[in-house]
Structures are given as C-alpha cells and as structure tokens.
Amino acid sequence: MTIDDRPTTPPAPxxxxxxxxxxxxxxxxxxxxxxxxxxNALTGDYEAAARSRADQVVLDVEDAVDPTAKPEAxxxxxxxxxxxxxxxxxxxxDRSTAFWSDDVDAxxxxxGLAGVMxxxxxxxxxxxxxxxxxxxxxxxxALVESALGIEEAVHIARARGAFRLAFGSxxxxxxxxxxxxxxxxxxxxSRLVVASRIGSLPGPIDGPTTxxxxxxxxxxxxxxxxxxxxxxxVLDVDQVPVVNEVISPAPSDVAWARDFLAEFExxxxxxxxxxxxxxxxxxxxxxxxxxxxxxxxx
Length: 298
Description:
The chain has 298 residues and is α/β, with parallel strands linked by helices. Helix content is 42%, strand content 14%. A hairpin with a 5-residue loop joins strand 1 and strand 2.
C-alpha cells in the first residue's frame, strides 16, 4: 500500500480549548484516510461536516441530489469551494451522464477542491477524461459500482489520474442481484484490493454501512479491515469515530511495532532470518499509521 507521509496540518484550537480540524486542510492525508463523510450538496451542513472528525469530506452532487436540483447543488458547492472553504472532495456524476461535463467545468481550478469522486466508474477512460478536463492536477477517486467496473478494476487503477478506488456497494448489489452478506460481497471487495495493489494505489475505500447502530458499524468496519480495504464511506457523523477506531492500528499493535523497531535498532538493524523482513515492514507500516492517526501504544 502506498503511504502518504507528507506532513499534515494540526487541528486548530477553538476558543474553549477543544481541537477541531481546520477548514483549509483535513488532518489526515487522503491517501490514508479512514472515514469519508458523504454530505448532500444541496441540503447538507458544510460547516458541520468541516468541523467533524471525518478524515475527508465529500460533497455529493450525484445520488444524493434529485436531477432537477443538480444545477442548484453544483452552484452551492462551487461557491463554497471558490472561497477556499473546506478543502473538500466532490462526488460528481458519472461520465455517461449529461451532468458530468457541467460538473467538471464548474469545479476545475477551484481553490477548495481536494479532488473528485467519480461515480459509477466502469473504464480507465472515465478516469483519464475526468482528470484531463480538471486540468491534469486534481486527483480522481474512482467509485466502482457495477459488475463491469469490478472486472475493469485493474485497468481503472492503472489509469492516469487515478488516486484511489472506492466501492459503491449499494449500486453493485442492485446491478448484480447480490445480497449484502459478507461472503457474497467478499469478491468485489477483494478485487478492488488486488487492483489497487497492482495499480500501486493506496488501499481501497469500502462502501457505507447504512445502520447507525455502533455495534453494526463496528462489525462491518472489521470486515472492511479483514479484507484489506483501508477506508470506508460514511453516511452519518455518528459513524465516524467508530470507523476511525476500527480501521486504525490497535494500541496493542502499536506497542508491538515500536518494541520491535526499538529492538531492531538496538541490534544494529541486522536481519536474523527470513521472518524479520516481513515483520519489519509490518512494524514500520503500523508505526507510520499510528503517528498519522494519533494512536498511542497500550
């Protein structure tokens, strides 16, 4: 998995001493972001989303907005981003629709745009054309939501401009008739994990859990982690802390990683046997993520 180790902006203190993420940048880089909060672009509270603990915020002008209201939603998003607010992502309409062209034209070059989430991606060309129309600098997060998209996932992951893959689980189930059972959904999730690795992308982002029940969100986030996905779409701010906790390294794992790294340094970084290299890689990955997420050893 590609890890973005660029320094991030620390949370800004509020008047009462609490810390909230700054509106100009999220505290966790998008390459390793765990929670991706979807916000209705027409009716959502952008300010509340920006203050939330979500690693990344996505303003949704696609499925969340009625077709007749899309121009109004797009204008609201563009006005927010034009002022440099939020540094947020935008889920835009898919390449096959008439809305796509208006979406990319309205967003191109806006200072508050972190990147776009391209709905219903089914081909590498969808990503590349979006990337080019946005000026060749804005990252494209490809949301894969169909049987065709899953089977084309490797090509999508290798497309110029592709930043990360995400799973549109609800639309995938509608397209294929698949149930929400974990076993039935294991193949498409694993396919995105493998494609991301082949394309040298960060780990993919899982689809959302519709339930607000914390035990259910925790269980589903655990499935996400077990299959190798490293982020999750979130529909409600109440889900964010659970998703962040489950996808982060456990404090006990952080303790093991730092003990291993300290012992490795103490013996002069000598590799003793074949198990040392994979353990070293795992320890370094856990340590990097723990520092990025602020997880302390138990």
